[in-house]
Write a structure and sequence with these properties.
By secondary structure, this protein is α+β, with helices and mostly antiparallel strands. It has helices at residues 2-17, 20-35, 38-41, 118-129, 132-139, and strands spanning 45-56, 59-72, 84-90, 96-100, 105-109, 112-115, 146-155, 158-166, 172-178, 184-192, 199-212, 215-225, 228-240. The protein is 21% helix and 46% strand. A 13-stranded antiparallel beta sheet has the order 6-5-4-3-2-1-13-12-11-10-9-8-7, with helices on one face.
Length: 263
């Protein structure tokens, strides 16, 4: 009995010895392994096909067939430069959409390509830099990244581990990881609105994970701002590491560049 008591006390001591930083890093490492580990880190591109919904004040404003192409690129300053390009196509014919590059973005239709307002691109850039999947794929070992556990809790009747992920610029994203699957279920961060100078709370929910090319990816993604639903996508399929052409992530040859919308 004494021997087993000593073992139990020793194990309990090891558990208590785990610091908040150690626990946070462990949870993140377990998540990375659950997402596919080396296969996730080797993901060069992704194609998501499904339906996208936009909302305004909780009311449906638009829905469309959607196809989203994502390609990861290489940058030296992962803290401030985007290492991804994205092409979003909408409609039955997938003949209009948005092209996001590393430094600019365009609305692309049959009329031409119209530069997106700087404010919209800035929101996209910050949302990308603080997205948990982007952090794990691109920024995981970036100097200054800190993974600090906030402990365990229950979210939607499921036990979760909560981790604050912060970078050298003190940008913090709080991520909720399912204790059973180890996968992200929710992320939260705040962003200063450049017009109102008030903080917006950006929340993203992830669910319905499926395996694609050895990688686990959420088919259902919901985004909320200040507790109001603003966007939702339900993917019917996700493909990893397809042979995507360079032209897909560039403006169409000879595209007319339209004037930016007046603000």
């Amino acid at each position: 009995m004494t021997r087993w008591l000593l073992i139990i006390l020793a194990v309990a001591g090891m558990v208590r010895a785990e610091t908040r930083l150690e626990r946070g890093k462990r949870v993140v490492d377990e998540c990375l392994a659950a997402l596919g580990g080396p296969r996730f880190l080797a993901m060069q591109n992704r194609v998501e096909t499904g339906r996208a919904y936009s909302f305004y004040r909780e009311k449906l404003q638009g829905l469309s067939i959607a196809k989203i192409y994502t390609r990861y690129t290489t940058v030296s300053d992962t803290a401030h430069d985007l290492a991804v390009r994205e092409r979003e196509l909408f409609g039955k014919k997938l003949d209009y959409g948005v092209l996001f590059g590393e430094t600019e973005a365009y609305d692309v239709t049959f009329r031409g390509a119209r530069p997106l307002p700087a404010e919209r691109f800035a929101r996209y850039k910050e949302s990308t830099l603080r997205n948990i999947f982007y952090i794990l794929r691109v920024r995981l070992r970036e100097p200054g990244m800190v993974y600090e556990s906030r402990g365990a809790d229950v979210l939607d009747n499921r036990p979760v581990e909560i981790v604050d992920i912060s970078d050298a610029d003190n940008r913090i994203t709080t991520v909720y990881f399912d204790q059973t699957t180890k996968l992200p279920t929710r992320q939260v961060f705040t962003r200063m609105d450049p017009k109102t100078r008030e903080k917006d709370e950006e929340v993203t929910l992830f669910s319905k994970y499926r395996e694609a090319g050895g990688v686990q990816w959420p088919l259902a993604i919901e985004r909320r701002r200040n507790d109001e639903k603003i966007f939702e996508i339900f993917a019917e399929s996700v493909e990893i590491n397809k042979n995507l052409s360079d032209e897909l992530f560039a403006l169409p040859s000879g595209a007319k560049i339209l004037k930016p919308e007046e603000r």
